[in-house]
Design brief:
- By secondary structure, this protein is an alpha/beta fold.
- It is 37% helix and 27% strand.
- The protein has a 6-stranded mixed β-sheet with strand order 8-9-10-3-11-12, with helices on both faces. The chain has a 4-stranded antiparallel β-sheet with strand order 2-1-4-5, with helices on one face.
- Strand 6 and strand 7 form a beta hairpin.
- Helix 3 runs parallel beside helix 5, helix 4 packs across helix 5 and helix 5 packs parallel to helix 6.
- The longest helix is centred in the C-terminal third of the chain and has 16 residues.
């Protein structure tokens, strides 16, 4: 199986087990360069696990995932897959930005230092250059005045925007968002979604796991509905939200969009 070299992500028959529990049951999908794909589905459907497999935070049990035409986590040795070197996995992972549900900022570093750290340590970017870029990214996410603030002094929405800036500082090929707003107070969700919307407008390739259906409807190029470790259905947002083909999709959307309906 070779990669689709035009796709930024090319997942082929991906299986993932946790002990005897098969969480991903043969997921095949592609994300094209510049595409925004939003993955929706009930809790436990495999969405987060799949996202973590894309950057090899979870090791897949079967199948292949290519990032920009390059196999991640393994290398092909005469038709047989063997584990790749940690160095090469780290190199590829450095090109994939990921924003988690929890912000994972270094508490002992300021917002500016949090953003500068990886480019300096991983890519060897000179301090002055890293700082200039970090300040520009803080301005981009609306936090130019918070450069010297420590995470404990920032709201959840501000911390998550710093986390996005930190991921962008590595100039990633793709951004992965795993429930980036679900730990936030409702009034803070909008400020993070605004930054994500702007990235989409700028052409960033994005895979987004979210319960924010308005974001999926307005921003996604394609919506994927997952349940039970499989892709149940996928399509343009208008089709998925207005005319889903599968009863499982219809049932999920009824519960999410009309939670008070009997």
């Amino acid at each position: 199986m070779s990669a689709n070299t035009t796709a930024m992500v090319d997942a082929q028959e991906v299986h993932k087990y946790f002990h005897r529990n098969e969480v991903l049951r043969g997921i095949s999908m592609q994300i094209q360069k510049g595409e925004v794909v939003v993955i929706i589905g009930p809790s436990g459907s495999g969405k987060t696990t799949f996202l973590r497999c894309i950057n090899f935070l979870e090791k897949i049990n079967k199948g292949r995932i290519y990032i920009d035409g390059e196999l991640i986590g393994f290398r092909d040795a005469g038709g047989r897959l063997v584990p790749d070197s940690e160095k090469n996995i780290a190199r590829m992972r450095s090109e994939i930005g990921m924003v988690f549900q929890r912000f994972n900022l270094f508490p002992h570093m300021t917002a500016l230092q949090n953003i500068m750290e990886a480019p300096m340590q991983v890519k060897g970017v000179p301090r002055e250059q890293a700082e200039t870029r970090a300040r520009a990214l803080l301005a981009k996410v609306g936090l130019a005045d918070k450069a010297d603030a420590y995470p404990a002094r920032l709201s959840g929405g501000q911390q998550q925007r710093v986390a996005i800036a930190r991921a962008l500082a590595m100039d990633p090929k793709i951004m992965l968002f795993d429930e980036a707003t679900s730990a936030l107070d409702p009034e803070l969700v909008g400020e993070v979604l605004k930054v994500m919307r702007q990235l989409a407008l700028e052409g960033m390739t994005m895979a987004v796991v979210t319960h924010e259906m308005s974001f999926a409807r307005d921003v996604a190029d394609r919506v994927i509905f997952m349940d039970g470790g499989v892709i149940v259905e996928q399509g343009k947002p208008a089709d998925i939200f207005s005319n889903p083909r599968e009863e499982r999709t219809r049932s999920f959307l009824r519960k999410v969009l009309e939670p008070d309906a009997s």
